[in-house]
Amino acid sequence: MALLTGLLLLAAVSLLAVTAAGTMTLQQHQAANFADKTQARANALLAESFARAWLYSRLDSERQATCAADCLLPRGIYPDQDIPDNPEFESMAWWRSHGIPAGQSPVPGMMPGYVGERSTESLWVIEEIQFEPVDDPSVETGYSGVGYYRIISRGSGKGPASIAVCETIVARPWGGEFVAMEFPPAAPLSLFCGQFDDARACGTLAWRSRR
Known about the structure:
Blueprint: H1 2-56, E1 77-78, H2 92-98, E2 100-101, E3 122-133, E4 145-156, E5 163-174, H3 190-193, E6 203-209
Parallel strand pairs: 1-3
Antiparallel strand pairs: 2-3, 3-4, 4-5, 5-6
């Protein structure tokens, strides 16, 4: 009887040990997945900040003043409808073709979107979705209007399923007396919009996670 009781206790302890080990493994796996997804989101936000810095670093001479349709846009900024409505479902090949890595610049002589062998953990694209010109730029010391932009940023983690895609709507005034930001940025991005009065839309208007 004692032997049977001992065997039953041993079996129970063994079962508890196996269950505990399985639970610990599952928790470790879940924690690793959460950390990987968190890293992907962080990479997407990094790409978004570099995209805004690039937008704020453009000079007035790079965009046709008061042009509201079929305009010559700064290098690296796509016209309206050039970016798919649901870029979060686009393949990595599409992102390699269209996206700019965080910290990189679509410099002269390089087609916007050329990535080559550079990092693809953080990528961004910018699309001008609307431009509202002022009636008479001369009245406001050269202020020509405000552009509205859709920034799509993509970040990836270590695992193939760890992907984050964010969308940010940003306003940026053009014309007037202002200092363009450096790129890569050497100061907080908020300093750019601080140069304009409250009557001029500037900065982030909306943000959402698409994936």
